[in-house]
Write a structure and sequence with these properties.
Elements lengths: L6 E7 L3 E6 L4 E6 L2 E4 L4 E4 L3 H18 L6 E6 L2 E5 L2 E2 L2 E8 L2 H7 L6 E11 L8 E2 L1 H6 L5 H24 L2 E13 L2 E5 L7 E5 L9 H4 L5 H12 L5
Antiparallel strand pairs: 1-2, 2-3, 3-7, 4-5, 6-7, 8-12, 9-10, 9-12, 10-11, 12-13, 12-14
Bound molecules: adenosine-5'-diphosphate and uridine-5'-diphosphate (UDP).
Length: 241
């Protein structure tokens, strides 16, 4: 594949990233913007440097996962805030794994935030902002054609594999991987991890102080959002400009 890629027309503008076509039809360009959204897009703010920090953290994590045998869409970094990825046919579901209770789990079930779960918990959500990403299960996915049984099984298995790689990786740098969301798509008939793994889509707590190092700082107006993301990057050894 050529090393110089020409950016084409915009394909999709999401809440935090813009997706562009390029001159290779098998690839897309992901532009990580500074926009930070919460509550299904009800609140959006610009946080300077966030796009670049997330682009770098995502590249680092995707490469770790590839090395561990997880098929990912990540091809390479193109610039400080852009990456080249395989063009996937995305499944409209979000896969969440939780190691510690937080967020919607606590609201839904009245569980206390911070409760350590005896085993990782898996949940599916429908990717639909207007409906506020409702929780769904295997039956909904099969019945409404959002995925096949094989894709359901593979999404679950791969999401747990990711936990097996990332939980110890973060533990080594004094960070608890509380929970995270993954999205998958199909490339050449194969299920592949897409979208991103950044502090925008997971919960990371300092293991000693339990200080939040993720988007909950924005959701809860705690301040120091990008500084916390940069701290995660620094501990991972991710180089920032
Ligand atoms: P949202 O759509 O939730 O507002 P983003 O701002 O992150 O989210 O937009 C990125 C969009 O690009 C998401 O809808 C995501 O599913 C999609 N996407 C991510 N990776 C790929 C890929 N490799 N191929 C096609 N679409 C992708
Ligand atoms: N998450 C996400 N995008 C979503 C919903 C959730 O990235 O549309 C992430 C979120 O950051 C957290 C995990 O998935 O790391 C679990 O989120 P939860 O169900 O607790 O929902 P929340 O209350 O965070 O919206």
């Amino acid at each position: 594949m050529s090393t110089s890629i020409k950016k084409g027309a915009e394909l999709y503008r999401g809440k935090a990233k813009t997706v562009y076509h390029c001159d290779d039809p098998t690839r897309l360009i992901l532009h990580f913007r500074n926009d930070t959204s919460a509550f299904d897009g009800a609140r959006i703010e610009q946080l300077s440097r966030k796009g670049e920090v997330n682009n770098r953290i995502n590249a680092f994590v995707m490469e770790k996962l590839s090395a561990a045998g997880v098929p990912t869409h990540f091809d390479r970094l193109l610039s400080a805030d852009e990456s080249l990825v395989k063009r996937l046919d995305m499944l409209p579901v979000e896969c969440v794994v939780r190691n510690i209770a937080a967020g919607s789990l606590c609201k839904r079930l009245g569980v206390e935030e911070g409760l350590e779960l005896e085993a990782p918990l898996f949940e599916f959500f429908l990717k639909n902002d207007e409906l506020h990403d409702p929780m769904i299960n295997d039956y909904h996915i099969r019945l409404f054609g959002w995925g096949t049984q094989q894709q359901i099984d593979e999404m679950q298995a791969l999401t747990f594999t990711v936990n097996g790689v990332l939980k110890p990786m973060f533990a080594e740098i004094g960070i608890l991987l509380v929970d995270y969301k993954l999205e998958f798509g199909v490339y050449d008939g194969e299920l592949v991890l897409g979208d991103e793994f950044t502090p925008d889509g997971c919960r990371l707590w300092d293991a000693e102080t339990r200080e939040k190092l993720d988007k909950d700082r924005f959701r809860r107006d705690l301040g120091g959002v990008v500084e916390a993301y940069e701290e995660v990057a620094r501990r991972l050894g991710v180089l920032l400009d």
